[in-house]
Amino acid sequence: MEWTEKLSVGVATIDSQHKELFKRINNLVLAIKQHRCKEEIDSTIKFLDDYARVHFSEEEKHMRETRYPGLEQQREDHKKYLAALAELKAQAALPRVQGSTYDLSATTNQVVVDWIVDHIMKVDMKFGEFLRSKGHT
Ligand SMILES: [Fe+2]
Predict the structure, then answer these.
(1) 78, 82, 102, 122: most buried, per Cβ within 10 A?
(2) Distance from Cα 137 to the centre of ligand 1, integer Å
(3) Where would I find the beta strands (DSSP E) of 32-73?
(4) Within 13 Å and on the Cβ side, how many CA atoms surround 30?
């Protein structure tokens, strides 16, 4: 999964945080694929979770400051993502047969990878359009 210009919202901080988010998600996907030990997968999820929180609050701050009307929808969406990550964390914490990481990787692809791409492409892009229409970028 790679960040491309096509995903640019037009705000430097947000774009660079999106890139970092992709990097962390890729690390997680890789850790699962390579059947890394439980501790490593757990800490990668925690890393991603911490970063997602930092990023969402930064995004929401920008939205508050520019009085973006879509802020509530964003907050709801962000909350759902953090809940999905919590679920993933719980799933990763379950005892599993060594090497059997299929479920974990399916959940990760569904809830972590698909969601973020979809969210950035659809919901965050609307914020970018809003900023452009107001002459903020
Ligand atoms: Fe967002």
Answers:
(1) 78
(2) 17
(3) none
(4) 8
